[in-house]
Amino acid sequence: MDKIPPLSKVKPRAIMVVGAALTLVAGCRSDPAVDHPCGPSSAGPCMLLLESRHHYGSPHTSWFFIDTAGNQYKYETRNPDLDLVIKAMEDWHINAQELAGIVRVAQPQGGRVPMRDVRRALRLVAQAKDANVEELGGPCEDWLRDLHGFVFDSRAQAQESVHLQESGCGILFEQNTSPAAIEVSQWADDLWRHGDHPRRPH
To answer: Can you tell me the distance from the alpha carbon of 65 to that of 187, in angstroms, rounded to the nearest whole number?
Structure first.
């Protein structure tokens, strides 16, 4: 079983990437906890992070996701018309029923993410919610990656998507400009890609 890298408790500018872990070098900070991340009446976990990977022009998509209990899953499909994640994300929300349906056909992946890291990721995504997303480049004919975090939307009674990062060919196409988004994106890279961080285009 792969070792789960810890989510650092520092600002992104104070993070040094070493192998598959984020090394704390300076700048500690504390953030308020996210109360009721799935809503006050929720009886179970909800979506926390969701990453899609697909090859340019291919119908095959792999989805990797973590729920707020720290469970990791992988869901794959070769038919976009039957893709449960695409269907759920039509309104940029995923509710409890939709998540349950996805989990039923998904495969568990790796170990459970420690709750201290789940709580930290929840805080970072909440901080990134209202930040701008900077467009840096265009798609390439290679594997593409799109990363979203989720926060509870009381009006929709579902988890609302927060776009964090899009990349391909090892280059960033879009980046949420919040330092919190950059930090949680780096952690997701380490968790699922073992330190293969996309770079900004020249």
So the answer is: 13
- If you average pLDDT over residues 55-78, what whole number do you get? 89
Gap between the Cα atoms of 57 and 96, Å rounded:
31
At 32, the amino acid letter reads P
CB burial readout 36-62, b (16+ within 10 A) else e: ebbbeeeeebbbbbbbbbbeeeeeebe
pTM of the model: 0.80
